[in-house]
Amino acid sequence: MLQANKENNSSFRQESHLTDKVKPSALPKLKVEPFTLTRISRLLSWTDTERELKLWSGNTFKSFPTPKNFISHLNRRNLHAFAGISRQGDFVAYGELVGEKGGEGIICRVIVEPEFRGQAYGRSFCSELLRIAFDELSFTHLTLNAFHFNTPAINCYKALGFRQIAFRPKARRFKNEDWDLVILRKERPLFD
């Protein structure tokens, strides 16, 4: 969920006021399924500016990805891409789990469709990604990176049990801005 907070980019606001107040039973229900190529164009339309692209994908893409180079990205070894589908059948979220089954995992490139932000879809989607990561892929733990100013995403991940393990100042540069990275980690639960 690499979205900026309001002061940095209002189009990427998400769960800022919901993450700590929404009970898991009140989260919107989502079906999480493997991402299909038919959704690429829609997904790529969710970022309009270079800044939004960097917030979502970090250094993964040098410029706006095309469907062709996004397919190449999806073919990376040990990358598992997922789509979040609302009860109404809308494609509302995208995210990736990266890693070998039974090993360490990374959760990355999580994004919620702009129209559905601020409604706890990100938390609901990530909750299901955690279930897949630990139950189906048997990851020992998950790590993720979030930019320091992205408090909505950081709050969401902390509400799901992630804890900060590192802080990397000036880890990324965007135009004339230095962006610090917060690294978070969640261990595989001992008991389900």
Furnish the topology, listing elements before pairings:
Elements lengths: L29 E5 L5 H5 L5 H8 L9 H8 L4 E8 L4 E8 L6 E8 L8 H16 L4 E7 L3 H9 L3 E12 L2 E11 L5
Parallel strand pairs: 4-5
Antiparallel strand pairs: 1-2, 2-3, 3-4, 5-7, 6-7
Would you kindly provide a written description of the structure presented here, covering whatever features stand out?
The N terminus is likely disordered. The protein has one domain: 3-Layer(aba) Sandwich (Aminopeptidase). The radius of gyration is 15 Å and the shape is globular. The protein has a 7-stranded mixed β-sheet, with helices on both faces. It has 5 helices and 7 strands, in the order βαααβββαβαββ. Helix content is 24%, strand content 31%. Strand 2 and strand 3 form a beta hairpin. The protein is α+β, with helices and mostly antiparallel strands and 192 residues long. The longest helix has 16 residues.
Task: Pick out its properties.
single chain, alpha+beta, Aminopeptidase, 7-stranded mixed β-sheet, 31% strand
Mean pLDDT: 87
Rg over alpha carbons: 15 Å
Q: What's the N-to-C terminus distance?
A: 25 Å
Low-confidence stretches: 1-22
List the total number of helices. Answer: 5
CATH superfamily: Gcn5-related N-acetyltransferase (GNAT)
Spatial order of strands in the largest sheet: 1-2-3-4-5-7-6
CATH domain topology: Aminopeptidase
CATH-level-2 architecture: 3-Layer(aba) Sandwich
Query: Briefly, what CATH class?
Result: Alpha Beta
Major sheet summary line? 7 strands, mixed
Helical content band: 10-25%
Structural class per helix/strand content?
A: alpha+beta
Beta-strand percent range: 25-35%
Shape: globular
Number of domains: 1
Q: Give the oligomeric state.
A: single chain
